[in-house]
């Protein structure tokens, strides 16, 4: 785990923690000690959640129709996160948490996220999305879920054509990939895992786009505030440089859930121990035997359909008679949930 003891201040900035109202001997020294491993650091009651949802519904704003994509579990996560004020750790103030949700809804509305997702999901071959948004390669994709049904987002720098990546355009591309899966989450799932590879890639070409990594982190914070469950970053010497760049722009609420690994084998072991991947889900490029389905990786509509199946595998609302949601034998290898 990373450990520089930062948290959010009242403006959402990363700040150094010197104490949290404890005696010197009890003062936490790592993010893991400062923040609970659970995503919910402070208790949020159903009444608190109702109050927030009611306040949002009362807003006379163009994003009102987007409220259906805001789940109770996510609202609780946003409201429960810690922040530092007067050197003491406190829950976020109601208005501060509300602003985070409003900013997200406003961004979603202004960028026509819902309409674009619906458009690309209607195209079965996925070619248009690839041609428009993946000029730098199919390097980011959803594949599989963890033991709790939370989806796994993969990023592979070695599959990125840095010469063709358009940094400004990549924000929208990342948003459409991430948001489409988030929209399909069942009521009890609101967060996801990231598995990123920065160990086998052209470092010098990557550094020609120095804003690419900060842009990704900022997009992650805008698209999915307080949704990160865990991140496993595999780095080489060059990858460590990019990791350090990311640390400078990422808040503590992201970095304290991030683990850096020096090898793919080390990462595979960690992901199995943490229940992110099953033993038979370790892909060949991590030393395992599983071959990831390229059609899922490269076809936007298929990817979202499969990740939805994985997230809803134990959802009682899905019946065997629903042909679109039934789990086939081939799907079973894609879903690792329940094998732990």
Automatic annotation (TrEMBL):
<feature type="region of interest" description="Disordered">
    <location>
        <begin position="1"/>
        <end position="30"/>
    </location>
</feature>
<protein>
    <recommendedName>
        <fullName>CRAL-TRIO domain-containing protein</fullName>
    </recommendedName>
</protein>
<dbReference type="Pfam" id="PF00650">
    <property type="entry name" value="CRAL_TRIO"/>
</dbReference>
<dbReference type="InterPro" id="IPR001251">
    <property type="entry name" value="CRAL-TRIO_dom"/>
</dbReference>
<feature type="domain" description="CRAL-TRIO">
    <location>
        <begin position="137"/>
        <end position="288"/>
    </location>
</feature>
<dbReference type="InterPro" id="IPR036865">
    <property type="entry name" value="CRAL-TRIO_dom_sf"/>
</dbReference>
């Amino acid at each position: 785990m990373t450990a520089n003891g930062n948290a959010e201040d009242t403006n959402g900035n990363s700040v150094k923690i010197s104490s949290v109202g404890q005696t010197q001997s009890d003062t936490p020294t790592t993010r893991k000690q400062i923040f609970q491993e659970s995503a919910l650091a402070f208790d949020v009651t159903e009444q608190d959640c109702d109050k927030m949802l009611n306040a949002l519904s009362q807003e006379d704003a163009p994003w009102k129709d987007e409220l259906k994509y805001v789940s109770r579990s996510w609202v609780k996560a946003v409201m429960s996160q810690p922040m530092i004020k007067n050197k003491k750790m406190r829950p976020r103030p109601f208005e501060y948490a509300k602003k985070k949700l409003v900013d997200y809804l406003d961004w979603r509305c202004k960028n026509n996220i819902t309409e674009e997702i619906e458009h690309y999901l209607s195209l079965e071959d996925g070619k248009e999305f690839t041609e428009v948004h993946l000029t730098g390669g199919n390097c980011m994709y959803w594949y599989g879920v963890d033991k709790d049904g939370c989806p796994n987002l993969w990023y592979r720098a070695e599959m990125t054509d840095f010469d063709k990546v358009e940094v400004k355009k990549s924000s929208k591309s990342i948003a459409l990939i991430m948001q489409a899966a988030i929209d399909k989450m069942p009521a009890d799932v609101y967060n996801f895992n990231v598995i990123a590879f920065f160990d086998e890639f052209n470092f010098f070409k990557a550094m020609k786009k120095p804003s690419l990594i900060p842009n990704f982190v900022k997009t992650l914070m805008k698209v999915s505030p307080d949704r990160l469950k865990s991140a496993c970053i595999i780095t080489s010497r060059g990858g460590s440089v990019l990791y350090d760049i990311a640390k400078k722009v990422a808040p503590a609420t992201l970095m304290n859930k991030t683990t850096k690994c020096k090898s793919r084998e080390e990462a595979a072991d960690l992901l199995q121990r943490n229940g992110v991947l099953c033993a038979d889900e370790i892909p060949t490029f991590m030393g395992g035997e599983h071959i990831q389905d390229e059609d899922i990786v490269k076809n936007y509509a298929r990817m979202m359909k499969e990740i939805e199946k994985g997230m809803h595998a134990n959802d009682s609302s899905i019946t065997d008679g629903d042909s679109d949601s039934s789990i086939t034998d081939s799907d079973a290898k894609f879903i690792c949930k329940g094998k732990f």
